[in-house]
Amino acid sequence: MYQQEVEVISSYIAVSAVEVGKHLYWEIGGYKLHGQVFIVSWLVIIALLSLAFIGTRNLERVPKNLQNFMEFVIEFLQDIAKNQIGEHEYRSWVPYIATIFLFILGSNWAGALIPWKLIQLPEGELAAPTNDINTTVALSLLTSLSYFYAGLNKNGLGYFARYVEPTPVLLPINILEDFTKPLSLSFRLFGNILADELVVSVFTLLVPILIPLPVMILGLFASSIQALIFSTLSAAYIGEALEGHGEH
Amino acid sequence: MVNLPLLLALQETNREIEGGLFDFNATLPLMALQFLALTVILNLLFYKPVSNVLDDRDEYIRNSLTMASTSLIKANELTQKYEQELAESRKQAQDIIKKSQQEAQQIVSIKIKEAQQDAEKLVFEASQQLNIQKEQALKTLEDQVDALSDQIKLKLLNGNLL
């Protein structure tokens, strides 16, 4: 009798279960991929590209509806880059910062707004691409690479002089920083998005719509903040690397 | 019922062969490449054209502003010039008015003088003629008086004689 009950409950749980750490595996050339991450990220990329394509069809000097919105978006993103990197050098970094913001925001909202549970996968579940550690580490490593590139490109090998600033005593901490930066970036994003999805799915498992809804709205807010934080911090790191050590 | 969590946990552990939260694999580099491709495409499709439009608009506005300020300066200069000209011509007009007034006054005074002279002459002539006529009248009167007195004298004398 208990067995029956358990089966009933477990079948119910299987529908709205919390699935953590299970992935839809694809195999390409002997390498394994997380399929669900790529499916959703492609949807996000398609959405971004089509928005960009439609929004820039007929650009005019006096902007109209959609062009206004696109200009607002790009000015917002330029402001992030300008505030962190500075008036002189921000222009070449706008594409990177802007894409980081748009991709993370799109991914987070795709995970929060679209009811992926309705689509059954053989293994794992569709969710925000940013709740996979691979995505966030990839983005944060790109940030690391770009700030190294920015520093070396501007100051040459003199870039490494900043490791002994203000005193050589701080050398180990400065070196450690290069590891903690991508680590904190990636884990902040990963943890926030995963935690948000877990909280929402646990709540939906326990109680119907009334309690999870505010949490979901909070999750929307938090995920946009995470996108802003990631792009702002990336811009700040790049700006820090671009700051010549002789200038201040 | 008590065993439920345990059963579920058992189920989970049985199914979990690979995976986990921190399952790094080829997703990472491919995601990075995909992201870079997205950056490049969005840059070509979105950021560059839109920021070009923004820059063009900025330049257009700046040019229009400088043009407007130059035209404003020009307009101010023109106004000053015209005001000066206006003041000058006003002065000239006043001069002309003064001159013509003076001339007119002169003419008027000359004419008045002439008229006065004419009038005096006329009065003088009239009074002269009057005097002459008066004398003539007196003379004729005297003549008549003489004639009358002669007649009276004659009559008286005739009467006495008779």
UniProtKB/TrEMBL annotation, chain A:
GO biological process terms on file: proton motive force-driven ATP synthesis
Locations listed in the record: Membrane; Plastid
Any single Pfam family the record assigns to this protein: ATP-synt_A
CDD domains: ATP-synt_Fo_a_6
Sorted UniProt keywords: ATP synthesis, CF(0), Hydrogen ion transport, Ion transport, Membrane, Plastid, Transmembrane, Transmembrane helix, Transport
GO molecular function terms noted in the UniProt entry: mRNA binding; proton transmembrane transporter activity
Subcellular location, principal: membrane
GO CC annotation terms, alphabetical: plastid; proton-transporting ATP synthase complex
UniProt name for this protein: ATP synthase subunit a, chloroplastic
Species annotation: Chondrus crispus (Carrageen Irish moss)
Lineage summary: Eukaryota, Rhodophyta, Florideophyceae, Rhodymeniophycidae, Gigartinales
Gene name of the record: atpI
TrEMBL record, chain B:
Keywords, alphabetical: ATP synthesis, Cell membrane, CF(0), Coiled coil, Hydrogen ion transport, Ion transport, Membrane, Plastid, Transmembrane, Transmembrane helix, Transport
Main location per the UniProt record: membrane
Xref: Pfam families: ATP-synt_B
Any one GO MF annotation of this record: proton-transporting ATPase activity, rotational mechanism
Transmembrane feature ranges: 28-47
Keyword Iron-sulfur appears in the UniProt entry: no
Domain of life: Eukaryota
Gene Ontology cellular component annotations, sorted alphabetically: plasma membrane; proton-transporting ATP synthase complex
Subcellular location: Cell membrane; Membrane
Coiled coil: 72-158
Keyword Transport found: yes
Membrane topology summary: Single-pass membrane protein
UniProt-listed InterPro entries: ATP_synth_b (IPR034679), ATP_synth_B-like_membr_sf (IPR028987), ATP_synth_b/b'su_bac/chlpt (IPR002146), ATP_synthase_B_chain (IPR050059)
HAMAP family named among the record's database cross-references: ATP_synth_b_bprime (MF_01398), ATP_synth_bprime (MF_01399)
Family classification: Belongs to the ATPase B chain family.
Function per UniProt: F(1)F(0) ATP synthase produces ATP from ADP in the presence of a proton or sodium gradient. F-type ATPases consist of two structural domains, F(1) containing the extramembraneous catalytic core and F(0) containing the membrane proton channel, linked together by a central stalk and a peripheral stalk. During catalysis, ATP synthesis in the catalytic domain of F(1) is coupled via a rotary mechanism of the central stalk subunits to proton translocation. Component of the F(0) channel, it forms part of the peripheral stalk, linking F(1) to F(0). The b'-subunit is a diverged and duplicated form of b found in plants and photosynthetic bacteria.
Assembly with partners or alone: F-type ATPases have 2 components, F(1) - the catalytic core - and F(0) - the membrane proton channel. F(1) has five subunits: alpha(3), beta(3), gamma(1), delta(1), epsilon(1). F(0) has four main subunits: a(1), b(1), b'(1) and c(10-14). The alpha and beta chains form an alternating ring which encloses part of the gamma chain. F(1) is attached to F(0) by a central stalk formed by the gamma and epsilon chains, while a peripheral stalk is formed by the delta, b and b' chains.
Name of the protein described by the UniProt record: ATP synthase CFO B' chain subunit II
Organism of provenance: Chondrus crispus (Carrageen Irish moss)
